[in-house]
Amino acid sequence: MTTVNKTARTPWRAILGGSVGNMVEWYDWFVYASFATYFAASFFPKGNPTAQLLNTAGIFAVGFFMRPIGGWLLGRFADRRGRKAALTATVMLMSGSALLIAIAPTYESVGYFGAVVLLVARLMQGLSVGGEYAASATYLTEATPPGKRGFASSFQYVSMTAGQLLGLGLQIILQRTMSEEALHSYGWRIPFIIGALGAAVVFWLRRNLMETEAYDEKAAETGAQQRGTLRALLQHKREFVLVIALTMGGTLAYYTYTTYLTKYLSNTAGLPKTTASVVSFCALFIFMLLQPLAGALSDRIGRRPLLIAFGIGATLGTVPLMTALSNVEDFAGALLLSLAGLVIVTGYTSINAVVKAEMFPTHVRALGVALPYAIANALFGGTAEYVALWFKDSGIESGFYWYVAGCAAVSLVVYVFMRETRDAALSRREEAAEPVPERV
pLDDT per position in the chain (440 positions), as tens? Predict the structure, then answer.
């Protein structure tokens, strides 16, 4: 067991570099979901609003199916060329995809070509985010001393949530300063332009990061051709399957209570769009603040207790929570119920990145985190909104609640029997329990 160095300082520059870039990445990713109700009619024929949302949700899901490819390509790149190089590459891809959406032509002007541009942009986003998660998770884990990794890696979901809050906050501002007609006409393009510009700033920030000690150590020992290969990854089949299984319930619950929540409160509960947006914003802000607290708790008591708490809560609580949310009538009730769901999800989100990174050795860590996580997200996270809308359109919306609870139950079984990863050593220095100097 590794002796934890309690005196090592928290590398805030590394946390800032990894998380701020992650924030911009996920701002662009989530802006698509939060503004879909406004631009859905721009790319598809007029008619059934639910059908238009299904089309845009389908393109949203397609982006997730590119994530395994992005996870493989950029995870391999991160293991071969370094975590810093992968982090800069992902933000460049995301900037380009946001710009494409911002300038995409509408159905009225070019027919379905606009939807094709939208699809291409989502494919680019899928590639980028597929690699971003692994590069960010690996960098934050490796750049942090033992005893503080849970806390540091929790900023991945702090930044993800902050990106979503920026998108929702901008949506609230635009809703209050622009007419409904203007938002549907051109206002929805504004957040994508902002995202493209923000990525340029992050590109500069990430170029000034230092590489992690664990990667430099492994790079000095082995050639690039021996790092980040599928053959090397397949030597860790058990960990590969574990990542898929432990992600299954967590990612589905996360997207249910975040990206889908605003639409659910509006389409099912019947709350005004503006009220639903404010509920989501307030709930997500509190959720964001909970992440470092839960991450720090995992450094003291271990990762498994938090994962098990999430598994039990999501398995038993999803159906009653979603049922109650469907009947909510005011802001206060919607906020309290949304927070209940997000508090449960915190047991997963605050530490899932560090758990995965601690499972794999350095030479395949980025690829080992990226590929199985991206596969699970493609199958369960990316399809969450589409599946939910399909159940609703079929008249059996409650079936979606049971689907989420069932997936959480499968992950719960994994949490109960998996090994604790908190004390994993990531470098020779940690194996020898030597003092860990601040590197960044």
Answer: 444 444 456 677 778 777 787 788 778 877 877 787 787 777 776 665 666 666 676 776 677 678 788 888 888 888 888 888 888 888 888 888 888 888 888 777 877 787 888 888 888 888 887 788 888 888 888 888 888 889 988 998 898 888 878 887 888 788 889 888 888 888 889 999 998 888 888 888 787 788 777 777 766 766 556 677 888 888 889 999 999 999 999 999 998 998 788 888 888 888 888 888 889 889 989 999 999 999 999 999 999 999 999 999 999 999 999 999 988 888 999 999 999 999 999 999 999 989 998 888 888 888 888 888 888 888 898 788 889 988 988 888 889 999 999 999 999 999 999 999 887 767 566 655 554 444 44
Report yes or no: 161 and 342 within 8 Å, Cβ to Cβ.
no
Contacts of 280 (CB under 8 A, 6+ apart): 168, 258, 261, 262, 265, 338
Q: CA 288, CA 296: separation in Å to the nearest integer?
A: 14
CA 196, 201, 207 angle in degrees (round to 5)? 120
Q: Taking Cα atoms as reference points, which of 99, 102, 85, 101 lies closest to residue 21?
A: 85
Strands (E), 221-274: none
Predicted TM-score (pTM) of the model is 0.81
Residue in 424, 159, 125 with CA at minimum distance from that of residue 303: 424
Angle made by CA atoms 61, 35, 336, in degrees to the nearest 5: 90
For domain 12-211+236-421, say whether CATH 3.30.450.20 is its number. no
Q: Which long-range contacts (CB under 8 A, 24 or more apart) does 54-60 make?
A: 54/386, 54/389, 54/390, 54/393, 55/115, 57/385, 57/386, 57/389, 58/386, 59/115, 59/118, 59/119, 59/122, 60/32, 60/33, 60/36, 60/122, 60/382, 60/385, 60/386
Nearest to 20 by CA among 146, 200, 289: 200
